[in-house]
Amino acid sequence: MLWSDPDDEPPEELRDMQDMLRRLSVFLALAMVLAMIVLGLK
Description:
Distance between the termini: 59 Å
Number of helices: 1
Structural class: mainly alpha
Pfam family, one: MmpB
Strand content: under 5%
Radius of gyration: 19 Å
Keywords: Membrane, Transmembrane, Transmembrane helix
Protein name: Morphogenic membrane protein MmpB
Helix content: over 70%
InterPro entries: MmpB-like
């Protein structure tokens, strides 16, 4: 890697969006599991 290469760090907004999407995907996965359990109990 050369000293003139830009940093690999993504900008702050991109990191915030990735964190939000990660939390949203975890929430959606838990919601899907809960929905499967509720539908299975009926």
